[in-house]
Every structure is written in C-alpha cells, then in structure tokens.
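help with this record:
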Amino acid sequence: MLAARPHRARFRRALGVRNGQRLVVVNSTWNPESLFGDGGDEDLLPTLLPRLTSELPADEYRVAAVLHPNIWWGHGPGQIRAWLDRARRAGLLLVDPLHHWRQVLLAADAVIGDHGAVSYYAAALGTPVLLGAAPLAGLDPHSPVAEFVAGAPRLDPHGSLTGQLDRLLAGPRPRSRAAEFTTSVPGESATLLRRLFYDLMGRPEPPGRAALVPLPLPPCETRTRTAPLYVVTRPTGEPGGVRVTRYADPRGEPLADGDVHTAVHEDTRDPGRLALADVIFREGAADDRRFGGPAHWTAEVLARFPQCALAAFVTGPDACTVRTRAGALFRLTGEAAGADPCVYASALYACLGRESAAELSAHGLTVRTGTAAHAVRVRPMAGEAD
C-alpha cells in the first residue's frame, strides 16, 4: 500500500470521486460483534449505509463499503446486494472484497469501521477513523489493536452523521501508534520476507531485487444513482452563480435554506416519482439510437411528463444536453472531474427564473457544491426532436 500511495488521485478518479468530494469508507470484519455482525446491541451496518448515502450531501461525499470476504460468502453475494440495494441506488459503492480494498483504503478521506484489520490499516496510513463497533472483550488487552480500539473516537449511530464526519475531518489528527506497530521497516517487507522464506527452505535467494506486484487500478465506477434526488439551490450573488446541495432518497425533508426541487432518474424504481419531478435525467451515448439522441429524448420526456420543467441527457462525465419546458435546448459543459453534470442541469433550472438564456449563455454558470466551485459553459443548441 505504501508503494501505491503516489497513485491515490488515480484510485479516486477510478472510484468516481469528483473534485471537492470526500470518500468515506465503511468497513466491517467477520465477527458477531463486528459492524455487520448481530451479536451487539443492534445490527448497525445495514441501516447505517442507507443513512450515510441519504443524509450526506451527494456531491460532497462518496460512500464505499469494504466487507470481509467471509461476509460475502457466508450470506451470499446476492443477499448482500439485496440487503444494501437502497444504499446502492443512492450511490453506495460496494468494493470487491479481494482485489480492490487496498486501493479504496488509500483513496479514503475517512473510515468508519470496527476492530478488524482494515480499520487498523487505515489508522496506520494516517486516515481518520470512527469506530461503529468497538468490542474489547475478544482482544488481547496488551495488543496494538486493543490499544487502537480503546483510544479511537466512537460513532454515535443516532447522531448527525454529517456533523460527526465534518468534525472528524476538521479536527486535529493525533499521531497514531498503529503505523509503528504495523511495520518497523516500512518499504522493506519484500526484501526481508523473501530472505526469511528462503532461509526457512534452506535455499539461496534468487539474484536481483525483491519486487512487489503493483496494485492495479480499479475498474472505472460507472454505476448510476437512480434514487430520487432532493435538490436545494441558493443564488450566490454572482452572475450565473448558484449553490447546489443534493440528497439521495432522504427519509425526511432535509432542512433547506433555499429553493427546493426534485430531480429523478428515468430508470427510478418508483415510476410515480417521475410524474412529480421538476427535472428528469438519464445517461447515455449521444449516438445511442435507442434514445434517438439527446434532442429527441429530452423532447419526448417533456411531452410525456407535462409537469416536468427540464430534461437532461448526460452524454459524458462533464457534459449534458438539456431542454427547458419552453423548448430551448442547451449544451452544458464543465471542467474535467468536476461535478456530476446533473448538478449543472439543476443549477440551470434554478437560474432560469432569475436570468435570461442569453445572459447565461454569455457568462455561463458558477456552480458551487460544498467547498468546490465549477465553471460551466452554457451553449444554446439549434434543432428539434426528430
């Protein structure tokens, strides 16, 4: 993992972490008293993950889950995915339990975990850790893990998750002894272990340097968030300036300081939400003939749903085509690795009531999500549906 640290930014891009987002990794070991276990006071993780994906602002946080392989194979992959289906539709990334957990750990900004090895490795890497389960009874009281568990901050499962994570990430980071207990010779494990193994076999070491197999890049995460989005917008005072905060499938209406609208994916599990949506969106290639192209699809959606004010067809990681209820067609383009293009569509929806299309085309949009600002070009497009 230490050798792969220079590739952290690549790992984050592969996992779909955008500029200004924080990656929160939730980890559970395999034990009745683990975060996913049922031997404690409550079965926490199956309810914690949907709360994280719905309570944390969707464009400020990315949530990933690293579950012990025995959890997957003990319950079965299908059962795990079924239990976590709501969280996955709201944006949860379920990580391959064998091949990619180390890359995800290196990419993390914070970890919520338990007494397992992955949480300990996170602390050794200097990543802030909150413990959702912290059983001490089964640990050697003199072990490094017991020391870590006894001293790590605790997650309050009934408190504000956003507040706890914001405080964890903003607070001081005291030096953890986990790193020195993980290895006393960082960067030298391959050399020392190879020497030990060949000594045990009574054989001479091969010539050349002992080398590690590099951690591969995870596949690009392309899973679509299909849960309905509760969107809060607020003007910032600058031309085309708007702050956008989105929540995926919240259990209740978040406290909103601004105007509110709903944005719903065309493939939502609840088609009834489409009839109430202010913005309807989907992803696809611009030349995908199944949809007839962005101009055709946006016109078709607005015809099918007369209450919808804006339709957005996302054609890439930084661009979308939108059509307003008045029939105007625009191409919105942001910077690479910027916000989800659907954020730009919601920002345009919010601004059109205050500024004209000509003004927005002239100066573009400045869309703010959390601490990030995204410059977005607004280009009018000619053409109607086929």
Q: What stands out?
A: The CA atoms of residues 332 and 344 lie 7 Å apart.
